[in-house]
Task: inverse folding
């Protein structure tokens, strides 16, 4: 017993204030834990990686996070040792062991449970309607939506079916599904408005441009005076899972505004892709 007491006393001397702080918390009845500062820094490093920037040097990580160089060097070394990161030469990537840890989190995951909060955040940041489309039987179908609070809005609701050749979301769904694209291009491209693309050559060019850019912008193709900006979400196989879109009246969403929001929409689409364990196809 005397030995145990002396060990506790020694520990108390090595970590001054540790037991006193715990006693204070207990006295106050607090059950909240203060986050460890180092975990915040580790999170900053992990967040610096993206699907468009999957590997970086130490210097690039330091620039992306703003953390001191010595801190980045120390944390990266330990994160590599523990499997959080992998290192080949001077290039550092998210560790493949992370995929093993993430597998139970995404197994059986309801995609809409991930998409809906993102749509609401997009709506709140832009003020416009945010929606998520999937391809169903050669059409694009709205499977989730966060409606704008503006009185002037585009008509959008869950279950809305739209011809896939019209609008930015359809272009995204076709860009990474070549078999479907060829089928659509071989069929009639009926006009919905005066701005609908109705020639196979023009649509083929726009689909190729969407794939090259990683996003698509459209105006007046499905409805007159309405604009859309879309980006792809990919599944674990690297197949396009859906199109994330911001839409609204062109008077509030001229092309210049859409271009300002490109990075925003692409980042949110990437966020969903990463959360579900998806990957961008090579």
Result:
């Amino acid at each position: 017993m005397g030995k145990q007491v002396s060990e506790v006393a020694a520990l108390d001397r090595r970590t001054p204030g540790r037991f006193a702080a715990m006693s204070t918390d207990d006295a106050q009845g607090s059950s909240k834990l203060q986050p460890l500062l180092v975990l915040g820094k580790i999170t900053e490093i992990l967040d610096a990686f993206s699907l468009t920037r999957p590997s970086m040097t130490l210097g690039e990580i330091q620039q992306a996070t703003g953390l001191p160089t010595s801190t980045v060097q120390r944390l990266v070394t330990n994160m590599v040792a523990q499997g959080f990161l992998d290192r080949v030469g001077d290039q550092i990537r998210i560790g493949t062991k992370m995929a093993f840890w993430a597998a139970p989190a995404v197994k059986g995951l309801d995609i809409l449970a991930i998409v809906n909060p993102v749509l609401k955040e997009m709506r709140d940041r832009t003020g416009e309607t945010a929606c998520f489309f999937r391809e169903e039987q050669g059409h694009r179908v709205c499977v989730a939506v966060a409606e704008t609070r503006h009185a002037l809005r585009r008509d959008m609701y869950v279950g809305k079916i739209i011809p896939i050749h019209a609008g930015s979301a359809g272009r995204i769904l076709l860009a990474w599904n070549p078999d479907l694209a060829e089928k659509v291009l071989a069929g009639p491209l009926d006009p919905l408005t005066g701005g609908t693309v109705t020639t196979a050559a023009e649509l083929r060019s726009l689909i190729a441009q969407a794939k090259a850019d990683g996003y698509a912008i459209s105006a007046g193709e499905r409805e007159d005076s309405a604009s859309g900006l879309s980006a792809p979400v990919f599944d674990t196989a690297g197949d396009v899972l859906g199109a994330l879109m911001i839409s609204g009246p062109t008077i509030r969403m001229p092309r210049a505004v859409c271009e300002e929001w490109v990075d925003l929409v692409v980042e949110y689409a990437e966020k969903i892709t990463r959360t579900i364990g998806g990957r961008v196809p090579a």
Observations:
- The chain has two domains: 37-103, 108-275.
- The longest helix spans residues 111-126.
- Residues 1-31 have pLDDT under 50 and may be disordered.
- Residues 37-103 form a domain with the Arc Repressor Mutant, subunit A fold (CATH 1.10.10.10).
